[in-house]
Amino acid sequence: MKMRAAVLEEFGEPLKVQEVDLADPGPGEVLVRLVACGVCHTDLYTASGVDPSGYAPTVLGHEGAGIVEAIGEDVADLVVGDRVVTLFSPQCRECVHCLDPRTNLCLAIREQQNLGYLPDGTARLSRDGEPIRHFMGTSTFAEYTVMPQIALAKVNPEAQLDRACLFACGLSTGLGAAMHTAKVQPGATCVVFGAGMVGLGAVAGCRLQGAERIICVDLSDDRLELAKGQGATDVWKGGDDTVERILSETDGFGADYTFEATGNVNVMRQAVESARMGWGLATVAGVAGKGETLDVIPRFLITGRRVAGSSFGGVKGRDGVPALVDRYLAGDIDVDPFISHRISLGEVNKGFELMEAQDGIRSVIDFQ
Ligand SMILES: NC(=O)c1ccc[n+]([C@@H]2O[C@H](COP(=O)([O-])OP(=O)(O)OC[C@H]3O[C@@H](n4cnc5c(N)ncnc54)[C@H](O)[C@@H]3O)[C@@H](O)[C@H]2O)c1
Ligand SMILES: [Zn+2]
Ligand SMILES: [Zn+2]
């Protein structure tokens, strides 16, 4: 079929929205009509050419939500009409990682996905007979996408898809960091560094876990205001003295849980140093620049602090995303403040510009 998609032709150049071909879903694959898609930093990171594993041409986009339009052979878990959220982090329910509750890093299709292909090693996207590679296994800056069924989370049909798409990446990452990776305990003191989509999700996750004190640290007043709306009890402007300030407000001990959602390695270090001696857990969700390292003085670890990394918030996508969407539908998560701009597919580059200007949290592409 023919469809419109935003193609990354050359790194550092704007995406070009154009007609491309999309082949039918193969065995185990599903055709999804996109209804909404968030524009995320990872798309921009790849488009800019900074990502060492990036490739072009490709159709970017990974925060998609849509409706199942057709299914290939051997698709047992989805039917036409189901509402789905796309998963760059799939859940096959069979591999050694899927069977273990300690991780969400499914091993089933990693290799081919990283190369830009569907699990059988080929692409469904093409132009004039030449294949175009898929991005993050999702390629949702497009009217349609073909994806393996193990990378689609079936969500409650009541959920509006322009909200549900936010659970495809940043929001679930933040919520999950608090709920799945750190497993924040009721009554805890938490510090969240960064109040973008991920940090705000972590604030909401700490609140849902019953944290007593949630300090959110950012550089932007507007974003700190949003953090209050998600349940932050204290909002602070970040700086070199943040660790000292956390220690002085916790009897010199530090916070039970800290979360890093900035991608800045100096802030990661602050997150480790402000975690409580004895049992404090620093959860790192931010993605650092290529070659950057985290500098931790071993004494901080010997005295009982721990560090955890979190990819997609430790959320096993097919089980965890529908559960989080249900919490949203139950009124537990206020999603609307995250949607700052609504744009068309043709305006996708504007979405990048808004993000670079740190204007709002998310631009959402509306395909209607
Ligand atoms: N682990 C995962 O699976 C995963 C998924 C999505 C995003 N990420 C990463 O998480 C990070 C956050 O993503 P986002 O979409 O929320 O980004 P964002 O850019 O919208 O938010 C980052 C926030 O950090 C704040 N910040 C910057 N420097 C700071 C400092 N010194 N002190 C305090 N705050 C500071 C900024 O003001 C901004 O509000 C990024 O690194 C992103 O790549 C990771
Ligand atoms: Zn993303
Ligand atoms: Zn798996």
Write a structural description:
The chain has 368 residues and is α/β, with parallel strands linked by helices. The protein has 11 helices and 19 strands. The chain has helices at 41-48, 110-115, 161-164, 170-181, 197-208, 221-230, 242-248, 265-273, 298-302, 317-329, 348-356; strands at 2-8, 16-22, 29-38, 58-59, 63-71, 83-86, 125-127, 130-131, 133-134, 144-148, 152-154, 189-193, 213-218, 234-237, 257-260, 281-284, 306-309, 339-343, 362-366. Strands 3, 5, 6, 10, 11, 18 and 19 form a 7-stranded mixed β-sheet that branches. A 6-stranded mixed β-sheet has the order 8-7-2-1-4-9, with no helix packed on it. Helix 9 (298-302) links the parallel strand 16 (281-284) and strand 17. Helix 4 (170-181) packs parallel to helix 5. The chain is globular and about 65 Å long. The two termini are 18 Å apart. The mean pLDDT is 97. One zinc ion is lined by residues 91-92, 94-95, 97-98, 106-108.
What is this structure's SSE topology?
Blueprint: E1 2-8, E2 16-22, E3 29-38, H1 41-48, E4 58-59, E5 63-71, E6 83-86, H2 110-115, E7 125-127, E8 130-131, E9 133-134, E10 144-148, E11 152-154, H3 161-164, H4 170-181, E12 189-193, H5 197-208, E13 213-218, H6 221-230, E14 234-237, H7 242-248, E15 257-260, H8 265-273, E16 281-284, H9 298-302, E17 306-309, H10 317-329, E18 339-343, H11 348-356, E19 362-366
Parallel strand pairs: 4-9, 12-13, 12-15, 13-14, 15-16, 16-17, 18-19
Antiparallel strand pairs: 1-2, 1-4, 2-7, 3-5, 3-10, 3-19, 5-6, 6-11, 7-8
Bound molecules: nicotinamide-adenine-dinucleotide and zinc ion (2 copies).
Nicotinamide-adenine-dinucleotide is lined by residues 41, 169-170, 173, 193-199, 217-220, 223, 238, 261-264, 267, 285-287, 310-312.
